[in-house]
Amino acid sequence: MSWAEGLRKNLDTAKLRSLRFAIEEAKSFLHPEQQVKPDGWWNVEPMVELLEDFQEELPLPAVQVPAWPPGDMMLVEAADFAVPGYVLDSRLPQYTSIRKSVWTHAVAPRRLPSEEIEICNCTPSSDGAPSCGEDCMNRRTFVACDPKTCPCGSSCTNRPFHMRKSPKLAPFLTEHCGWGVITKEPICKGSFVIEYVGEIIDEKECENRLWEAKARGERNFYLMEINSSTTIDARHKSNIARLINSSCKPNCETQKWHDAATGEVRVGIFALRDIQAGEQLTYDYQFEHYGETNATSFLCRCGAPDCRGRLDKIGRGRYRQGHTVFVRFKDGIFHEGKVTRYIEEKESFAITFWDGRKETLRLRPKMHFWSELGCTPLEDKSAIKHEDVGRGLTFTTEDRTVSGAVVSYLPDVNAHEVLDDEGQRWYVSVDAIPHAWHGSDLHGMEKGEPTPGTT
């Protein structure tokens, strides 16, 4: 008995059909004219005999299978696969969640001798109420009490960050700044929000990671300097604090505190004002550059009226050189100009306006906006549906009367964007100039007596 006959007798019908179909599929690749055939189980001669033995008993369905491609067709130029940016940005960042920073490339501080631990002079309340409040000596000097030595014991509220209760926070995908964090409950001014945690690394490791990130083309960084020799890197290990975005008008700030027991410096995030549930949490990153002093920084997209354009710690105004700004003057008109120089010691901008005037101004909130913010509202997107949008408007300037229609409203600077009859755009504060409304036709003002405006 041949090998093929023995195999045939020991196979049931279902297995045989599958095997025969696989052999037929493989055989279709082995065209007689093909000079070079791939090595594999389908080249074994007994399998071909098996197929021929059962060709009449179990006819296979006609299946069109393409011939084995010639060798040159397999030579496809290699290319690195890249996931589209919008897909990467929409994925929740992956990291190992920790409650307290871990020391990986730096020596962790040890507990101090008892005589060196800073102990406050607070006394516990007789009724068991919370102690170590605003008058606590340690709290006022940004020192977290040692739970083992604090005279107030379990009633102490000035505990290390990892022992404090944080409000409920949640990540969400922002429109322009990737992932951010919102609070799901109100936060009172001055309250502790969360600790910024990660891997504590030394200066050498920090430099190595920065070079590695540059080589990878990394866009996001999570480094926060503790002092000249140690840095927190929240890239691989951290908590939700790593997702909090920067803002030039933040509702939170970072504070450096010391642990009384070890002297360890830790970074906490605290509320600058009362924050409502559903608000995004932000603080000012105040980036510092390593190496080149004139290195390019990251764009700031916080949308605040007084946004300084970049995330640098100091000298942000220098990045505004050449930018277009609209500044409100006493006439109630936002005049267009271009920044020619930033005077850092005065925190002022040298601006040349479109009519040739040159001014050196310290730009105040609500009195200016930058052209890259466009004609859309700066914070409240729903304000585009402001009741004045679409209405005809006539107003007077120093030398002319302008008629047009309101096309948008910028609530943060209280400015109406008006497209006049000649196609020119104006940004005006109607509360500060003589004006008149003309109905609600966007393309043409309705006839009739205008409604007097305020002056």
By DSSP (H or I, 4+ residues per run), the number of helices equals: 6
Share of residues in strands: 15-25%
- Rg from alpha-carbon coordinates: 35 Å
User: How far is the first residue's CA from the last residue's CA?
Assistant: 112 Å
Tally of strands: 25
Main sheet, how many strands, which sense, barrel?
A: 6 strands, antiparallel
Task: State mean pLDDT (0 to 100 scale).
Answer: 75
- Please state the overall shape, judged from the principal axes of the Cα atoms: elongated
Strand order of the largest sheet: 23-22-21-20-24-25
The residue fraction in helices comes out at 10-25%
Low-confidence stretches: 31-79, 373-385, 440-455
Structural class: alpha+beta
Task: Give your account of this protein's structure.
The chain is α+β, with helices and mostly antiparallel strands and 455 residues long. 13% of the residues lie in helices and 24% in strands. A hairpin with a 4-residue loop joins strand 22 and strand 23. Helix 1 (3-9) packs across helix 3 and helix 2 (13-29) crosses helix 3. Mean pLDDT is 75; it is low at 31-79, 373-385 and 440-455.
Structure keywords:
disordered C terminus, 455 residues, 6-stranded antiparallel sheet, 5-stranded antiparallel sheet, alpha+beta, single chain, 6 helices, 25 strands
Task: Give me the secondary-structure topology.
Elements: H1 3-9, H2 13-29, H3 45-53, H4 85-90, E1 96-97, E2 102-103, H5 137-140, E3 143-144, E4 169-173, E5 179-183, E6 192-196, E7 199-202, H6 203-216, E8 223-225, E9 230-233, E10 237-238, E11 245-246, E12 252-259, E13 265-271, E14 282-283, E15 324-328, E16 334-343, E17 348-353, E18 358-361, E19 368-370, E20 392-396, E21 401-410, E22 415-420, E23 425-428, E24 435-437, E25 451-452
Parallel strand pairs: 1-10, 2-7, 3-12, 11-14
Antiparallel strand pairs: 4-5, 6-13, 7-9, 8-9, 12-13, 15-16, 15-19, 16-17, 17-18, 20-21, 20-24, 21-22, 22-23, 24-25
Helix pairs in contact: 1-3, 2-3
